[in-house]
TrEMBL record:
GO terms, molecular function: hydrolase activity
Lineage: Bacteria, Pseudomonadati, Pseudomonadota, Gammaproteobacteria, Lysobacterales
Protein name per Swiss-Prot or TrEMBL: Transposase
Top-level taxon in the UniProt lineage: Bacteria
Matching InterPro entries: Alkaline_phosphatase_core_sf (IPR017850)
C-alpha cells in the first residue's frame, strides 16, 4: 500500500496526551482565570517578599488544613488530636529522634499527647 501525502501529513505530529485533552476541555468548560478573579485574595495583593512562604493562600482557612497520620513504637495507638500547626511537628520529630531542636515557631507541647509514654522535659 502506498502512502499518500494526506496520510503522511500527520505522521510527524505528536499526539495529545489524555491529560492535555482533559485540561483543554476543562478550561473550555470552567474558565478558571475568570472564576478565580471573582475571589480576590488578601495575601496575593501583598508584596511578593512578604508572602514567600504562603504562596498566596491563607493558611488559616480550614480548606488549607492537612491530615497528619503517624505510626511508630513511641506513638500512642488510635489517638486523635485536635488541629495543630505544621510547625509543631518539628518539635515532636526532634524529641523522637533525640536530637536538639533549632529555634523555631512550633509549640513542643502540642503533640506530646500523641506519645505512648511522655518524654522527660528537656530543652528540645
Amino acid at each position: 500500500m502506498q502512502l499518500t501525502f494526506g496520510d503522511a501529513e500527520g505522521l510527524g505530529k505528536r499526539k495529545q496526551t489524555r491529560r492535555e485533552i482533559f485540561l483543554a476541555e476543562m478550561e473550555r468548560i470552567v474558565p478558571w482565570k475568570q472564576l478565580l478573579a471573582l475571589f480576590p485574595n488578601k495575601l496575593a495583593r501583598r508584596a511578593q517578599e512578604e508572602t514567600r512562604g504562603s504562596h498566596g493562600f491563607d493558611p488559616g482557612l480550614p480548606s488549607m488544613r492537612a491530615v497528619f497520620l503517624a505510626q511508630g513504637p513511641d506513638l500512642a495507638q488510635g489517638k486523635t488530636l485536635p488541629g495543630f500547626d505544621n510547625v509543631d511537628v518539628y518539635a515532636l520529630m526532634t524529641r523522637l529522634l533525640g536530637i536538639p531542636a533549632a529555634p523555631n515557631d512550633g509549640n513542643p507541647a502540642t503533640l506530646l499527647p500523641a506519645l505512648r509514654v511522655p518524654l522527660a522535659a528537656g530543652p528540645q
